[in-house]
């Protein structure tokens, strides 16, 4: 039965994976060629700096810029998680699966596994293309000193971040039932993570770069597992009753509201010294969160008139 379900998912997802791969290869080519234009190498140089031999993500050298795992791939995973889950709902594919006789847990984990395998394949093929571009542009006489420590650590951090971004957008598309607000919600939260990263770096200034990088790997993987397991539980209770509402699971409204208020208040005040800034942030976050999640009648009427 699982083989039939895999075949069904592959039949549905394959065109999307091919399209995503084509876009990713074009972007990967452009980014690799842009990196190559920064190279300033002589015949006695090595292509990679000494950092390539250390167990930490490779950041490039003074003479050559590299991307051993492109941040573009993080966006690919984010985009994949968002649209694979979203389109299955908006095109009623989930309802078709629910009526097919498969257990929802089997549907969820098969869908998740298929999505991850496809996206990892896109990442591997795109990265191999970039490495090929780098190899073809190595000047004559320059030593190609690629080493596993830098490559594997770059991939560990990049892939962990990609999985985390995939899990965030996948989970958001599972619980938010309106496409426009979904884009605003996941887009805003994703951008806010830049501030979170800066705060964590500020708190861990006494840590080495390698320690902070491996902590990031652990946090991204832990967040991914939590969201995937939580999503499996919610997927089993997904129903048509709340289709078209902002939250497909109304019981999440209060917990999300509390998390949002605390998160926004902490984000804007944790490194601040003005207590009034914290108070105003709390008040504005509380008011906005209430209007966004509970949607008073006048807001809902306005949304329907402009839909």
Automatic annotation (TrEMBL):
UniProt entry keywords in alphabetical sequence: Membrane, Transmembrane, Transmembrane helix
Protein name: ABC transporter permease
Signal peptide extent: none
Segments crossing the lipid bilayer: 17-36, 69-87, 108-134, 154-175, 182-205, 217-240, 252-270, 276-294
């Amino acid at each position: 039965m699982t083989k039939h379900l895999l075949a069904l998912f592959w039949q549905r997802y394959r065109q999307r994976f091919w399209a995503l791969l084509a876009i990713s290869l074009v972007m990967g080519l452009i980014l690799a060629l842009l990196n190559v234009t920064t190279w300033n190498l002589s015949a006695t140089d090595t292509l990679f700096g000494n950092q390539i031999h250390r167990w930490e993500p490779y950041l490039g050298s003074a003479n050559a810029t590299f991307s051993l795992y492109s941040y573009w791939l993080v966006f690919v995973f984010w985009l994949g998680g968002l649209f694979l889950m979203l389109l299955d709902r908006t095109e009623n594919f989930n309802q078709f699966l629910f009526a097919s006789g498969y257990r929802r847990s089997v549907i969820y984990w098969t869908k998740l596994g298929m999505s991850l395998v496809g996206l990892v394949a896109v990442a591997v093929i795109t990265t191999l293309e970039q490495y090929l571009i780098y190899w073809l542009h190595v000047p004559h006489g320059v030593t190609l000193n690629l080493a596993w420590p830098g490559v594997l650590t770059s991939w560990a951090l990049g892939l962990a971040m990609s999985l985390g971004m995939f899990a965030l957008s996948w989970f958001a598309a599972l619980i938010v039932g309106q496409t426009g607000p979904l884009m605003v919600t996941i887009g805003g939260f994703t951008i806010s993570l830049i501030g979170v990263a800066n705060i964590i770096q500020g708190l861990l200034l006494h840590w080495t770069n390698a320690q902070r990088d491996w902590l990031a790997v652990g946090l991204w993987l832990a967040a991914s597992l939590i969201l995937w397991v939580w999503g499996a539980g919610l997927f089993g209770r997904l129903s048509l009753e709340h289709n078209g509402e902002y939250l497909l699971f109304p019981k999440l409204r209060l917990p999300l509201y509390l998390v949002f208020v605390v998160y926004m208040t902490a984000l804007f005040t944790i490194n601040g010294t003005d207590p009034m800034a914290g108070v105003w942030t709390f008040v504005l976050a509380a008011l906005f969160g209430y209007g966004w999640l509970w949607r008073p009648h006048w807001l809902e009427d306005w949304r329907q008139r402009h839909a």
